[in-house]
Specification:
By secondary structure, the chain is mainly alpha-helical. The chain has helices at 2-40, 56-70, 74-87, 121-131, 138-152, 173-179, 187-196, 201-207, 235-244, 271-277, 284-291, 296-304, 306-321; strands at residues 215-217, 257-259.
């Protein structure tokens, strides 16, 4: 009897001691399941590469700076790349894919007319691959090179650019014509495009300030000059534009263009807004931006206050750079930004 009683006591004691371990095991299992779920459905975060590639952001910054001093217009290209990549479906570096391995490049679209310097992305990627193979995505290169390019163009130093994007396994050539605004599109259409990806009117006005370092090819502006001059253009400015674009039928393969900003053409500043308020914008949307009641107050405020413009421009770039990214186990990390990986 005594032995059986002692045996029962020992058994109950063992069961009591086991309960915490069972509970601990249950929570560990939940934690594992959560981790698996989190990996598959991750989010962008600050310093995403702090453990996997601690020097990643510094390497990109150094390469952007070096390329700028060799080829100054690369900084403008990085900014335009961000817009063209993120507006079309996702910030996933689909723009960088060349036509190969069953992919039709978005660069073939008419909306990509005038885009260049894609070849220099490989220099940035090669430097990262040397440091951390198959770790840093091309999509993050697009976002961070734009951020650092803006600094080289004397624009704001944009904090809080999150990382952790992954690269698409295909392109969206068929969607580019619909999603990238045309140079003749109305302001309402452009506002709608930005709004569809979560960018409000104030930030849209600020992002259009990127035109301060842009240029427009003559093929896209001669309709405002010929056969008669658009009456919304400042007359003296229109005469200047006709000197830049002397033919109503310019050769699309010739490098004939006019800069949006003649005063500070390689600086991200508020001169663009001052120009469009003086009817010296190149595109129809420039004139609409300065006169439409939805946008005119923001234009006037940005023209008067460069710091305010930089604040809103920074906010707009952050919003744009976080458009529908691929994260977690979506997409891939391309070894060469020009091609999808081969498995």
């Amino acid at each position: 009897q005594l032995d059986k009683r002692q045996e029962r006591i020992e058994r109950e004691r063992a069961m009591a001691n086991a309960k915490p371990f069972c509970l601990l095991g249950f929570f560990c299992l939940l934690l594992q399941l959560f981790s698996i779920f989190h990996i598959g459905n991750g989010e962008l975060e600050m310093n995403y590469y702090k453990e996997s590639c601690p020097k990643a952001e510094e390497i990109i910054r150094q390469q952007v700076e070096t390329l700028y001093y060799k080829h100054g217009n690369t900084a403008v290209s990085w900014l335009r790349n961000l817009f063209h990549d993120c507006v079309v479906k996702s910030c996933d570096a689909s723009l960088l894919l060349e036509t190969a391995r069953g992919v039709e490049s978005e660069q073939k679209s008419k909306r990509s007319f005038g885009m260049r310097n894609f070849k220099y992305v490989k220099i940035i990627k090669d430097a990262l691959e040397k440091e951390c193979p198959s770790t840093v995505s091309c999509a993050d290169i697009v976002a961070l090179s734009a951020r650092d390019g803006i600094v080289m163009l004397k624009g704001p130093k944009i904090e809080m650019i999150k990382t952790g994007r992954r690269d698409s396994r295909g392109s969206y050539l068929g969607d580019v014509e619909t999603l990238i605004p045309n140079h003749n599109d109305s302001l309402s259409s452009v506002i709608s495009t930005f709004n569809s990806i979560g960018i409000d009117v104030e930030a849209t006005v600020a992002l259009l300030g990127a035109h301060s370092v842009g240029r427009v090819h003559c093929v896209n502006l001669v309709h405002r000059l010929y056969p008669t001059i658009d009456p919304t253009l400042d007359p003296s400015y229109a005469l200047y534009l006709k000197k830049r674009c002397p033919s109503p039928t310019p050769d699309p393969n010739a490098v004939l263009y006019s800069r949006n900003d003649r005063e500070t053409p390689m600086v991200v500043d508020n001169m663009y807004y001052k120009n469009i308020m003086a009817h010296k914008g190149l595109l129809v949307i420039d004139d609409e931006l300065a006169t439409d009641p939805r946008t005119a107050p923001f234009v006037a405020k940005m023209a008067a206050d460069n710091n305010y413009f930089h604040e809103q421009f920074s906010r707009g770039v952050r919003l744009l750079s976080e458009t529908n990214p691929l994260t977690g186990d979506q997409g891939e990390i391309r070894k060469d930004c020009r091609y999808v990986n081969q498995y």
